[in-house]
Design goal:
Elements: H1 18-30, H2 36-54, H3 57-74, H4 82-100, H5 107-110, H6 121-139, H7 142-152, H8 157-164, H9 168-187
Helix pairs in contact: 2-3, 2-4, 3-4, 4-8, 7-9, 8-9
Protein backbone atom coordinates (compact mmCIF):
# COMPACT_ATOMS: atom_id res chain seq x y z
CA UNK A 1 0.00 0.00 0.00
CA UNK A 2 1.44 3.41 -0.90
CA UNK A 3 2.71 5.46 2.03
CA UNK A 4 0.39 8.36 1.26
CA UNK A 5 -2.77 6.21 1.45
CA UNK A 6 -2.27 4.55 4.83
CA UNK A 7 -5.01 5.13 7.36
CA UNK A 8 -2.79 6.89 9.87
CA UNK A 9 -2.10 9.65 7.37
CA UNK A 10 -5.07 11.90 7.98
CA UNK A 11 -6.26 14.63 5.66
CA UNK A 12 -4.85 18.11 6.04
CA UNK A 13 -6.89 20.46 8.18
CA UNK A 14 -8.62 23.29 6.40
CA UNK A 15 -6.32 26.25 5.92
CA UNK A 16 -6.57 29.06 8.45
CA UNK A 17 -8.03 32.19 6.93
CA UNK A 18 -5.01 34.34 6.06
CA UNK A 19 -5.87 37.09 8.56
CA UNK A 20 -6.26 34.53 11.37
CA UNK A 21 -2.95 32.92 10.49
CA UNK A 22 -1.20 36.29 10.33
CA UNK A 23 -2.59 37.06 13.79
CA UNK A 24 -1.28 33.71 15.09
CA UNK A 25 2.16 34.39 13.62
CA UNK A 26 2.22 37.88 15.12
CA UNK A 27 1.23 36.49 18.52
CA UNK A 28 3.93 33.79 18.29
CA UNK A 29 6.56 36.48 17.65
CA UNK A 30 5.86 37.85 21.12
CA UNK A 31 4.95 34.70 23.05
CA UNK A 32 6.34 31.25 22.20
CA UNK A 33 3.22 29.59 23.67
CA UNK A 34 1.16 31.22 20.92
CA UNK A 35 3.06 29.07 18.38
CA UNK A 36 1.06 25.97 19.44
CA UNK A 37 -1.95 26.53 17.11
CA UNK A 38 0.41 26.94 14.13
CA UNK A 39 2.23 23.76 15.12
CA UNK A 40 -1.00 21.82 15.53
CA UNK A 41 -2.28 23.04 12.18
CA UNK A 42 0.82 22.15 10.14
CA UNK A 43 2.52 19.26 11.96
CA UNK A 44 0.71 16.48 10.07
CA UNK A 45 1.38 18.04 6.67
CA UNK A 46 5.05 18.65 7.44
CA UNK A 47 5.44 15.12 8.80
CA UNK A 48 3.87 13.63 5.65
CA UNK A 49 6.20 15.69 3.47
CA UNK A 50 9.26 14.60 5.47
CA UNK A 51 8.15 10.97 5.47
CA UNK A 52 7.55 11.00 1.74
CA UNK A 53 11.00 12.42 1.09
CA UNK A 54 12.91 10.33 3.67
CA UNK A 55 10.88 7.09 3.63
CA UNK A 56 11.76 6.43 7.27
CA UNK A 57 9.47 6.99 10.25
CA UNK A 58 12.20 7.92 12.72
CA UNK A 59 13.96 10.23 10.28
CA UNK A 60 10.64 11.89 9.38
CA UNK A 61 9.78 12.41 13.06
CA UNK A 62 13.21 13.88 13.73
CA UNK A 63 13.00 16.10 10.66
CA UNK A 64 9.52 17.32 11.61
CA UNK A 65 10.73 18.17 15.09
CA UNK A 66 13.71 20.01 13.63
CA UNK A 67 11.46 21.97 11.23
CA UNK A 68 9.29 23.26 14.06
CA UNK A 69 12.23 24.04 16.32
CA UNK A 70 13.75 26.11 13.51
CA UNK A 71 10.39 27.75 12.81
CA UNK A 72 9.89 28.66 16.46
CA UNK A 73 13.44 30.01 16.72
CA UNK A 74 13.08 32.05 13.53
CA UNK A 75 9.47 33.24 13.81
CA UNK A 76 10.61 36.81 14.44
CA UNK A 77 12.22 36.90 10.97
CA UNK A 78 9.29 35.21 9.20
CA UNK A 79 7.66 37.20 6.42
CA UNK A 80 5.30 36.34 3.60
CA UNK A 81 3.05 33.30 3.69
CA UNK A 82 3.66 31.16 6.77
CA UNK A 83 2.99 27.90 4.85
CA UNK A 84 5.57 28.80 2.19
CA UNK A 85 8.12 29.76 4.83
CA UNK A 86 7.49 26.52 6.75
CA UNK A 87 7.79 24.45 3.57
CA UNK A 88 11.15 26.09 2.77
CA UNK A 89 12.38 25.14 6.23
CA UNK A 90 11.15 21.54 5.74
CA UNK A 91 12.80 21.35 2.32
CA UNK A 92 16.10 22.61 3.76
CA UNK A 93 15.96 20.20 6.71
CA UNK A 94 15.36 17.22 4.38
CA UNK A 95 18.15 18.40 2.07
CA UNK A 96 20.53 18.59 5.04
CA UNK A 97 19.59 15.04 6.04
CA UNK A 98 20.34 13.81 2.52
CA UNK A 99 23.72 15.53 2.64
CA UNK A 100 24.55 13.81 5.93
CA UNK A 101 23.45 10.44 4.52
CA UNK A 102 26.02 10.40 1.73
CA UNK A 103 27.09 6.82 1.32
CA UNK A 104 30.57 6.00 2.48
CA UNK A 105 30.56 2.40 1.26
CA UNK A 106 31.11 1.14 -2.27
CA UNK A 107 27.97 0.99 -4.43
CA UNK A 108 28.24 -2.80 -4.65
CA UNK A 109 27.63 -3.01 -0.89
CA UNK A 110 24.66 -0.65 -1.07
CA UNK A 111 22.72 -3.05 -3.29
CA UNK A 112 23.36 -6.09 -1.05
CA UNK A 113 20.35 -7.25 0.88
CA UNK A 114 20.86 -7.32 4.65
CA UNK A 115 19.23 -10.75 4.82
CA UNK A 116 20.55 -13.31 2.35
CA UNK A 117 17.21 -15.14 2.28
CA UNK A 118 15.58 -14.71 -1.13
CA UNK A 119 12.58 -12.41 -1.30
CA UNK A 120 9.38 -13.38 -3.09
CA UNK A 121 9.33 -12.23 -6.69
CA UNK A 122 6.41 -9.86 -6.13
CA UNK A 123 8.31 -7.97 -3.42
CA UNK A 124 11.34 -7.66 -5.67
CA UNK A 125 9.23 -6.36 -8.54
CA UNK A 126 7.43 -3.88 -6.27
CA UNK A 127 10.76 -2.62 -4.93
CA UNK A 128 12.08 -2.20 -8.47
CA UNK A 129 8.99 -0.19 -9.42
CA UNK A 130 9.35 2.04 -6.36
CA UNK A 131 13.04 2.58 -7.09
CA UNK A 132 12.27 3.39 -10.73
CA UNK A 133 9.66 5.91 -9.61
CA UNK A 134 12.08 7.48 -7.10
CA UNK A 135 14.79 7.69 -9.76
CA UNK A 136 12.37 9.25 -12.26
CA UNK A 137 11.16 11.75 -9.63
CA UNK A 138 14.77 12.75 -8.99
CA UNK A 139 15.17 13.58 -12.67
CA UNK A 140 12.28 16.04 -12.75
CA UNK A 141 12.97 19.77 -12.58
CA UNK A 142 12.84 20.93 -8.95
CA UNK A 143 9.50 22.78 -9.15
CA UNK A 144 7.75 19.84 -10.82
CA UNK A 145 9.18 17.40 -8.27
CA UNK A 146 8.14 19.64 -5.35
CA UNK A 147 4.56 19.80 -6.65
CA UNK A 148 4.32 16.01 -6.89
CA UNK A 149 5.98 15.43 -3.52
CA UNK A 150 3.60 17.81 -1.79
CA UNK A 151 0.62 16.28 -3.57
CA UNK A 152 1.74 12.80 -2.50
CA UNK A 153 1.99 14.17 1.05
CA UNK A 154 -1.75 15.04 0.80
CA UNK A 155 -1.34 18.79 0.37
CA UNK A 156 -4.20 20.41 -1.55
CA UNK A 157 -3.58 22.38 -4.74
CA UNK A 158 -4.24 25.63 -2.87
CA UNK A 159 -1.79 24.71 -0.10
CA UNK A 160 0.86 23.73 -2.65
CA UNK A 161 0.34 27.02 -4.48
CA UNK A 162 0.73 28.98 -1.24
CA UNK A 163 3.79 26.99 -0.17
CA UNK A 164 5.52 27.48 -3.51
CA UNK A 165 4.36 31.06 -4.02
CA UNK A 166 2.57 30.14 -7.26
CA UNK A 167 -0.98 30.45 -8.55
CA UNK A 168 -3.18 27.34 -8.47
CA UNK A 169 -3.21 27.30 -12.28
CA UNK A 170 0.62 27.36 -12.32
CA UNK A 171 0.61 24.42 -9.88
CA UNK A 172 -1.81 22.52 -12.14
CA UNK A 173 0.46 23.14 -15.13
CA UNK A 174 3.55 22.04 -13.18
CA UNK A 175 1.71 18.89 -12.06
CA UNK A 176 0.58 18.14 -15.64
CA UNK A 177 4.11 18.59 -17.01
CA UNK A 178 5.59 16.52 -14.16
CA UNK A 179 3.20 13.62 -14.73
CA UNK A 180 3.77 13.78 -18.50
CA UNK A 181 7.55 13.74 -17.98
CA UNK A 182 7.27 10.90 -15.44
CA UNK A 183 5.31 8.81 -17.92
CA UNK A 184 7.97 9.26 -20.56
CA UNK A 185 10.81 8.62 -18.10
CA UNK A 186 9.22 5.42 -16.83
CA UNK A 187 8.56 4.14 -20.36
CA UNK A 188 12.10 4.68 -21.62
CA UNK A 189 14.37 1.67 -21.83
CA UNK A 190 17.59 3.65 -21.50
CA UNK A 191 18.41 5.50 -18.27
CA UNK A 192 17.16 9.10 -18.64
CA UNK A 193 19.18 12.21 -17.89
CA UNK A 194 18.03 15.19 -15.87
CA UNK A 195 16.59 18.13 -17.81
CA UNK A 196 18.51 21.36 -17.61
Amino acid sequence: MPVWSRGWLTQLPAAHPRSDEEALVEAARHDARAFAPLYEHYVAAIYRYCYLRLNDVQAAEDATSDVFLKALAGISQQHGLFAAWLFRIAHNVVTDIYRRRRPNAPLDVATDLPNSAPLPQTLVEARAEIEALRAALALLPDEQRHVLELQLADWSGVQIAEALGKSTSAVKMLRYRALDKLRSLLQEDAPPTKEQ
